[in-house]
Amino acid sequence: MPLPRHPVQELLTRIDQLFAPLSVETVPLAEARGRALAREVIAVLDVPGFDRAAMDGYAIRAADHGPRTLIGEAYPARPFAGCVEAGQAVRVMTGSPLPAGADTVVPFEQVQAVSDEPSCQRLQMPSLPPGKNVSPRGEDVQAGQRLFAAGRVLRPQDEALLVAAGVTSVFVHRIPRLSVLVTGNELVPAGSTPPNYRIVDSNSTLLAALIVRDGGEPDVGPIVPDQRDALREALLQAEGDLILVCGGSSVGAEDQVPTLLAQEGELLLHGLALKPGAPTGLGSLRGRWVFLLPGNPVSCLCAYDLFAGRALRRMVGRGVELPYVRVRVPLAEPILSSLGRTDYVRVTLQHGQAWPLPQRGASVLSSVCQADGFVLVEEHQPQLEAGQSVAVYLYDTLRRNDRNDL
Q1: How high is the pLDDT of residue 3?
Q2: What distance in Å separates the CA atoms of residue 114 and residue 370, rounded to the nearest whole number?
Q3: 85 and 36 in one domain?
């Protein structure tokens, strides 16, 4: 029996209808790293909390003119105790509190000593406008200011700003646990040397890393053989908020997962007009949603990113967008597709153009390492022409120096 070919958008719509953010919890900042905010965050403190010197120099009153008499010094956390009057100056270091009465800092290099008598050091300096080289209270952040909106995925610099603004905890969505079941009689665990025409399971490693990236907690079970009883037991014992079954999802003699899911629970949708990734499906079993992912590694990556990952990202409050930076560049060569089918095409970026990889097999795992990203050819586009502007989803945005390694 041939595999059905549902439009990709049909499954995307189902996911958006079925999956919503999980319950909200309050966690310390250290536990919120990389998580999406469930509520906006408001600053508790002004940053800085006082007027301070923005550079090394002399604090003065800008309205005064002529030589100044040096009356003291100020350092970070060690303010000058007095008040700057007309004709006076206080030596200040970057970050030190601005002395009372002063409103301007003149840099050291712009000041000349008129007299260096220890009892009465006199300084000549130019006139500067009030506020020059001064960082006023609340310049960076003001107490009560909204720092981040809900949905923001916290980066290291975001954490630092929250700490500086007096925020100690934030509201985030509960981290979902995802059960990963990889099936196949031909598979051996990672780290093994495969004997007798068997292969190493790389999909468990791939899916675990993708789940962590998208804010979930992977629970990877042992490899499940292509036997109905073993598959049924593994599914029933899975305790994750979401279950991912990788392999056994097509229509071959040993592809038993779709039939098992339909008999034991509900097979909501199975089979997509997608290349690679056609054997993708969604169902439920005893109150848990189950994604069927293809066993070929590129198909697995494609199906996870487009569908299972979308569900996870919704559960943790990250929205539905793919977690990749998108750039638009012209296509170097045409891409042929089939009307009514969505194609996931790996590309490299060279000289400002996107070059489709010649090797597009669903089992060629090295292709997604060699590629800089991918292009989605939508179902209504039978062909993309050379020179046409396309959206490329970049696998990463880090500088790469290893392009000739593969």
Answers
A1: 85
A2: 67
A3: no
How many domains are contained in the chain? 4
- Residue 206 and residue 167 share a domain: no
Q: Tokens in use for 33? A: 């790293």
- CA pair distance 355, 335, nearest whole angstrom: 10
Q: What is the DSSP letter of 3?
A: P
Query: What's 275's DSSP letter?
Result: E
Q: How far is CA 220 from CA 224, 239, 374, in A?
A: 11, 11, 27
Beta-strand (E) ranges in 63-126? 68-74, 88-92, 104-107, 112-117, 120-124
Contacts of 300 (CB under 8 A, 6+ apart): 203, 206, 207, 246, 293, 294
- Per-residue model confidence as pLDDT tens digits over 260-270: 999 999 999 99
Residue with tokens 């000549």: 124
Domain containing residue 157? 26-45+144-173
pLDDT of residue 386: 96
**Which contiguous run of DSSP H or E holds residue 355?**
strand 353-356
Retrieve residue 139's tokens. Answer: 């310049």
Torsion of CA 386, 389, 390, 391, to 10 degrees: 160
User: What is the rounded CA–CA span in Å between residue 394 and residue 406?
Assistant: 18
Same domain membership, residue 180 and residue 250: yes
> What per-residue confidence (pLDDT) applies to 406?
36
Specify whether the CB–CB gap between 324 and 371 falls below 8 A.
no
CATH number at residue 291: 3.40.980.10
Same domain, residue pair 280 and 383: no
Q: Which of 258, 42, 6 is nearest to 150 (CA)?
A: 42
Q: Mark out the alpha helices in 333-388 (DSSP H runs).
A: 367-370
Cα torsion 250, 251, 257, 258: sign: positive
Q: pTM of the predicted model, to two decimals?
A: 0.89
For 268, counting Cβ atoms within 10 Å of its Cβ (0-12 exposed, 13-18 middle, 19+ buried), the class is middle
